[in-house]
Amino acid sequence: MILYRNGMRFIMFYFLLVLPSMAWSEMKAISQIEVLMMSCYTCHGQNAKGSGKVPSLHDIDLTDIIETMNDFKTGHEKSTIMGPYAKAYSDQEIEALANFIKNPKD
Ligand code: HEC
User: Where are the chain's structural domains?
Assistant: First the structure.
């Protein structure tokens, strides 16, 4: 019973103090575009600097990132993974991602 009470107290503490402060810091630290970029990082490495055989996204310029993503979508650019993957992103998202890759602080 004592354990149970402490457990409840902990849960209350968590919901009243920890969660809101976490939500607040997340809101300040992570923008929407960074959330989108995180999925790119899983393959393209930390900050999209390349990882194993997956290329860095810093070696191609902004318009090439956008064009290549669109060519992945249409199949004009051959790919193993990016074809179906690129289709999940709208033109606006692709443009925003390309801008973020080139100017991460904007
Ligand atoms: C599941 C792994 C994976 C994810 C997730 C992923 N990529 Fe890729 N990406 C690849 C691979 C592998 C290639 C090489 C082409 C191929 O085989 O598909 C590639 C190639 C690219 C290229 C072409 C690079 C070049 O120099 O030709 C671009 C641009 C690119 N990815 C952008 C992105 C963006 C933007 C995201 C996030 C929205 C992303 N990728 C997410 C695996 C991934």
Answer: 1-30, 31-106
**Entry pTM:** 0.80
What is the Å distance from ligand 1's center to 82 Cα?
Answer: 5
Three-class secondary structure assignment of 29-86: HCCHHHHHHHHHHHHHCHHHCCECCECCCCCCCHHHHHHHHHHHHHCCCCCCCHHHHH
* Mean pLDDT score, 30-39: 90
CA of 106 to the centre of ligand 1 (A): 22
CATH of 31-106, one of 3.30.1240.10, 3.20.20.70, 1.10.10.350, 1.10.760.10: 1.10.760.10
- Give the residue, 105 or 102, on which the prediction is more confident: 102
The closest residue, in CA terms, to atom 5 on ligand 1 is: 40
* pLDDT at position 61 over 80: yes
CA-wise closest residue to 92 among 33, 45, 39: 33
